[in-house]
């Protein structure tokens, strides 16, 4: 799945033109079926890490190998293909839903780059929406008429519809009322416990983090701790190691 080695990302500060080191030599393994929650204070580099994992940005230095391909050096064309086929990205606010579309069209649209027949796209979209708990009567609603919690679920369905090998989500419960938050947490709990889908999620939500098999803490662009939830089995049931932390500790944590 993912193997990050020495990943550094520098930006030029718009304020004073200085160099901002958003990620500083991050090393990380994410195995098939692994669920990793990334935590850390504002500015720690969580969103930058997700964008780099998703191939939306390239690192300044280091390698980001996803299923054998280094996203840092692959051609732009191949990178777009990998994003379309293998990586589900939910930026969290629901604001990333394409405007002017119904719920079903919005999710089916994620399959267009894969060249599927429209009828197949619709069927897969309906299935993905059912999986995250969007009721049938909302399938033909314009997405802008949904409340924030439902928009968040549609964004998740849009990320999941292609059956990606990994789901990346940035603050998926942030700003939601309690009921809607619980619905989103329940989706991730199912993805981790039943589907064993590889997910990397940045969140400050304790309820969501409690379900994650592993936690990583980022501080000033570095991984300072890696812990595995007590009772969470290895991501892969074979004899292969479930995780091989490069930085920080991989301690067991109490629930
Ligand atoms: N495009 C950019 N240009 C310049 N600096 C950036 C850019 N993107 C991020 N940064 C800087 O990189 C650092 C890490 O930002 P990032 O958004 O990844 O942190 P974060 O942990 O996600 O923070 P938050 O929880 O507030 O979203 C911050 O200092 C931020 O200002």
UniProtKB/TrEMBL annotation:
Domain of life: Bacteria
Residue numbers spanned by region Disordered: 226-255
Keyword Calcium: no
ABC transporter domain residues: 2-245
Keyword annotations: ATP-binding, Nucleotide-binding
GO MF annotation terms: ATP binding
Keyword Nucleotide-binding: yes
SUPFAM superfamilies membership: P-loop containing nucleoside triphosphate hydrolases
Pfam families recorded: ABC_tran
Gene3D superfamilies, alphabetized: P-loop containing nucleotide triphosphate hydrolases (3.40.50.300)
InterPro entries tied to this protein: AAA+_ATPase, ABC_transporter-like_ATP-bd, ABC_transpr_LolD-like, P-loop_NTPase
Protein name, as recorded: ATP-binding cassette domain-containing protein
Biological source species: Streptomyces sirii
